[in-house]
Amino acid sequence: MKTSETIAAAEETVAESMVKGAIYETEMFSILVPDWWETKDLSTEGAVAVVITKGEDHMQLGVYLAPYYTDKYPDTATAEAYSKDLIENTVEQQNGTAVEEVTMFDVTFFKTSFTANGMYQTSFAGEKNGKAFSIITDGKDHQDNEEIKAMLESIEFK
């Protein structure tokens, strides 16, 4: 590993190591929930999801399995197509930024940022092993919020 890669890897875990909390565990993922944040299970048939909130700051994480996305969205029969369609629809409906591709957790995610209901948000959707993953972060300064960054860095998909 090059020195620059080692430094980058160390910097990526700084927020997670500085934030205290507990791990929220499901059969599909785990995520750090910082102290004083609240969780609400949003799971339904074919989807395992949680929203984590503190005031107006939010982190929502979901994993969607077929037939959840194939039944509801027959035009997007694969998890990857569903993920891309989800972000493209968000761009269109919310006047989001142009779709970007980013890699996190060995998954290529489609990404957009937008303001909805007065709240600045960033949405990610990606696919791995036939599962569609969705991450939504929001809050006035969510991209620089150490606790939100720590949650994002802590995610482990199973």
Could you characterize what this model shows?
The protein has 158 residues and is α+β, with helices and mostly antiparallel strands. The chain has a single domain (3-157), classed as Protein Transport Mog1p, Chain A, CATH 3.40.1000. The chain is built from 5 helices and 10 strands; from the N terminus they run ααβββββααββββαβ. It has helices at 3-12, 14-18, 68-72, 79-94, 146-154; strands at 21-25, 29-34, 38-41, 47-54, 57-64, 100-104, 107-116, 119-128, 131-138, 156-157.
Question: Which characteristics define this entry?
Answer:
158 residues; alpha+beta; Protein Transport Mog1p, Chain A; seven-stranded antiparallel β-sheet; three-stranded antiparallel β-sheet; 5 helices; disordered N terminus
| Secondary structure: helix percent | 25-40%
The total count of strands amounts to 10
Name the average pLDDT: 85
Topology as H/E string? HHEEEEEHHEEEEHE
| Uncertain regions spanning at least 5 consecutive residues | 1-14
The CATH topology turns out to be Protein Transport Mog1p, Chain A
* CATH architecture heading: 3-Layer(aba) Sandwich
The first-level CATH class is given as Alpha Beta
Main pleated sheet:
7 strands, antiparallel
Determine Rg (CA atoms, Å): 16 Å
Note the total helix count: 5
From the spread of the alpha carbons, the general shape counts as globular
Report, as a whole number of angstroms, the end-to-end distance: 26 Å
Counting structural domains, the number is: 1
Strand order of the largest sheet: 3-4-5-9-8-7-6
- Class computed from helices, strands and strand pairing: alpha+beta
